[in-house]
Amino acid sequence: MPKTRNTPALFLTVLSAILAVVVGVPQAAYADPDDEGGSKDMREQLDEAIRNYNDARDALNDSKDRQVQLEKDIEQGQADVESLTAQVNDIARGMYEGGTLSQATVFLTSENPEQTIDGMVLVSFLGDQSARKVTELKNAKGDLEADAALLESTINDQKEFLGKMEEERGKAARAIAAHGGDATTGPTTSDAPKPVPAVRNPNGSLPGEGCSQKDPTSKGGGCLTPRTLHALQETEAAGWTRYVACYRGGSWGEHPQGRACDFSVTPHGFSGEASGEAKAYGDNLAGWYVQNADALGVLYVIWYRKIWMPGQGWVTYDGAGGEPNSDHTNHVHLSVR
Q1: Which residue ranges does the record assign to the ARB-07466-like C-terminal domain (predicted)?
Q2: d(Cα 11, Cα 244) in Å, to the nearest integer?
């Protein structure tokens, strides 16, 4: 058979293909996703409902923390009032029995604390030490009453927050249901290390943030919010180090705001529908985000034709694209609050 002059080229082609399999030369089959599927209206409704739900939940948690502290303050206040009342009555009895006070001090022996205090206020010659003790008692009673009123208001606020959460949960469910979303199951745990929690305000809420940090995954000068960058860094620190793309331009969704990242389940780009080890990688990563949603400030997670939302759990999600990028079968999408 005659030799062909293209034999060296053919050899190199075969060798390149072998190397691609053996050493993992980048073989991305799909470009970076350019949308997350679903309609603009649906995504906007969903985003607003989930954000409002999270805000109400944060307010509820803060209110519950205040309730715990108020209950402790009230318990201590009651003990202080009882102790000071006993001390004031001891002073009153001593001064009365010693003949130091006028007949008006009969009020001081009353078992009614209010009457005791009012009586002592009328007596001008108690002395500085006794007067200070009376003032302490009056202040303690005033603080106790104020704490009790604040506790009642706090509990009423919690009812309002719970109602808001239920309202926004319903809005999110309707937005998904309008596009065929039904409750389903999905990954919720992972053995990967827990992340360092995102920075929060003193009351437990998340601070407002803009797209102010350089996106290390972007080649075109994209930006991320500090919280999204933190989530990306914590994801990588926990061992999820395959290909990722975060910022991209656009007029809607979280990516143009620097609040979302797409984590491919393959090392060098976005490939076809995941299976086997790649599918397990995506399951574990999605479960890690669900498990650590509060710590990272997760808005929602999309993976393998499903979306996870706080207060909803996993729901089927139609990307309306019919290919791995829009169906999220080749990457885990993370949106951050």
Answers
A1: 221-328
A2: 34
Q: From the CA atom positions of the chain, what is the Rg in Å?
A: 33
Res 8: pLDDT? 41
Range of the domain at 304: 182-336
Dmax (CA) of the chain? 136
- Report how far apart the first and last C-alpha atoms of the chain are (Å, whole number): 68
- Residue of higher predicted confidence among 209 and 89: 209
Work out the number of other CB atoms within 10 angstroms of the CB of residue 236. Answer: 14
Of 52 and 169, more confident: 52
84 and 208 co-located in one domain:
no
Phi, psi dihedrals of residue 273, rounded to the nearest 5°: -60, 130
Domain for residue 106, yes or no?
yes
pLDDT score recorded for residue 27: 47
Are residue 123 and residue 235 in the same domain, yes or no? no
Task: Output the DSSP codes for 67-78.
Answer: HHHHHHHHHHHH
Residue 9 lies in a domain: no
Amino acid identity of residue 68, one-letter, is V
Q: What is the pLDDT of residue 68?
A: 84
Distance CA 95, CA 103 (A): 11
Instruction: Give 169's pLDDT tier (boundaries 50, 70, 90).
Output: low
239 and 329 belong to one structural domain: yes
CB-CB contact of 213 with 224 (8 Å): yes
